Amino acid sequence: MPRKAVDFSKSGSVAAMAENLKRSITEVCVLYLLSSRPYYIGELTEELSRRSGGFLDLVCPYGLIYRMIDFEYIAEMKKQRAPDGRRRQYYEITDKGRDYLEELLACYQTFSSAISNVLQEKGAEDQ
User: Fold this and answer.
1) Helix or strand or coil: residue 127?
2) Residue 10 has pLDDT above 80, yes or no
3) What letter would DSSP give residue 58?
């Protein structure tokens, strides 16, 4: 059986690692933003980019949004007028989404703390 081709142009690069981290953390960030108030997609992507200093940029947000709708983490609201006067589809976090966000944040904190501990240990050995 032939092996699946591997794209080595990305494997082992800082860019590939950054892309994987962005994909993993974007869901957390979107749910976190929606936990404060409803957003329409354009506004959500702008806020995510603004708060991350342009690091997190949702180029195709609909896949993520529809996946979170399928999992019932977010829901479509009735269309509303946005500040620009246009009718927009807003999204809000559900109770299930809030519970999931709490779990994700706990996981993120544990992961972040573990990485920090590893990096601190390295620094301690050098002293």
Assistant:
1) coil
2) no
3) -
Q: What are phi and psi of 6, to 5 degrees?
A: -110, 135
pLDDT of 52-98, one tens digit each? 999 898 888 999 999 999 999 999 999 999 888 899 999 999 999 99
Residue 85 CB-density burial (10 A; 0-12 exposed, 13-18 middle, 19+ buried)? exposed
Residues 59/42, Cβ–Cβ less than 8 Å: no
Paired residues of 75 in beta bridges: 92
Helix ranges (DSSP H) in 35-127 = 41-51, 61-70, 95-126
Distances (CA, A) of 67 to 74, 75, 79: 9, 11, 20
Cα distance between residue 127 and residue 124, in whole Å: 5
Residue with tokens 């999931």: 100
